[in-house]
Write a sequence for this structure.
């Protein structure tokens, strides 16, 4: 059975880009006779809030994105992340990293590097015991896996196949919080997820997840990244871009049904002013006919 999931971080209100991704995850799972589960990505206690979570749940519910049983929340799962980290530590696949963001940026931009954006250049990979002890006095270490820029084939249902490098990415941040890249892989397995439908901004990190599943002996999943919604300058949608949340749009007179219609219009699943139900959208949904270009949102 196909099991999809939607995994919002409760760090603010969902905007129409997030809602559109949730709607597509729902359509994709149900189109295949499957189910969709919710995961609350509240790993980071400093940025997550219960109020945001409740508003996100209410907004998804109003839009008609329903979830099946088997919800999980990341803040309750640290023992599972710790076990996976201990496994990698025991196998010698992890090293401590003392770099600040600035040091990483500077090292990655050095002329001899040919790494993808945001990739770790391996600065701390070869530190000896003495150097480690000295650096530990300055700042606590994050933990990185030793992936050594191995090449991985990524197959994406929408974007096709590509080869990507896997850098030595973080599995535990230097404040002790497990990283998103680690948690998402462990949690997708725990929820029995077979397909991940999410925003195209996460396509670049997918090779890391494929690599980590292999290393941890977890089954692979299908990936489908969906194009983002952008503002009129072509930038990723944000709060400041006019009416972008259900609350903003309600203040402009758009009901949740009307917003579902507007989102459906960006997916070529509705004509202007139409307000199809989720079931009507499911009847119209054809995974191959979803636009691959980014959609511009200009409701003010
Ligand atoms: N909480 C993550 C986000 O909102 C989820 C990413 C994912 O779907 O894997 O970006």
């Amino acid at each position: 059975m196909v099991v999809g999931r939607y995994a919002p971080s409760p760090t603010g209100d969902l905007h129409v880009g997030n809602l559109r991704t949730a709607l597509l995850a729902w359509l994709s799972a149900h189109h295949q006779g499957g189910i969709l589960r919710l995961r609350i990505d509240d790993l980071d206690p400093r940025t997550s809030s219960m109020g945001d979570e409740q508003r996100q749940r209410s907004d998804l519910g109003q839009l008609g994105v329903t979830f099946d049983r088997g919800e999980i929340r990341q803040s309750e799962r640290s023992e599972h992340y710790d076990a996976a980290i201990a496994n990698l530590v025991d196998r010698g696949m992890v090293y401590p990293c003392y770099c600040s963001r600035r040091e990483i940026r500077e090292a990655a931009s050095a002329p001899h590097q040919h790494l993808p954006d945001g990739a770790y250049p391996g600065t701390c990979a070869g530190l000896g015991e003495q150097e480690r002890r000295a650096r530990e006095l300055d700042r606590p270490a994050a933990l990185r896996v030793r992936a050594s820029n191995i090449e991985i084939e990524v197959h994406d249902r929408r974007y096709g196949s590509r080869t990507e490098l896997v850098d030595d990415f973080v599995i535990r941040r230097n404040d002790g919080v497990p990283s998103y890249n680690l948690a998402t892989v462990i949690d997708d397995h725990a929820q029995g997820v077979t397909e991940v439908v999410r925003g195209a901004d996460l396509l670049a990190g997918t090779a890391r997840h494929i690599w980590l599943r292999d290393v941890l002996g977890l089954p692979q999943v299908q990936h489908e990244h969906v194009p983002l919604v952008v503002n009129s300058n072509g930038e990723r949608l944000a709060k400041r871009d006019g009416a972008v949340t259900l609350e903003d749009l309600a203040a402009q007179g758009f009901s949740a049904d009307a917003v579902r219609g507007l989102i459906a219009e960006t997916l070529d699943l509705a004509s202007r002013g139409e307000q199809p139900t989720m079931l009507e959208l499911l009847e119209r949904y054809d995974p191959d006919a979803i636009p691959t270009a980014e959609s511009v949102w200009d409701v003010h």
In short: The CA atoms of residues 17 and 60 lie 12 Å apart. The mean pLDDT is 94. The longest strand covers residues 150-156.
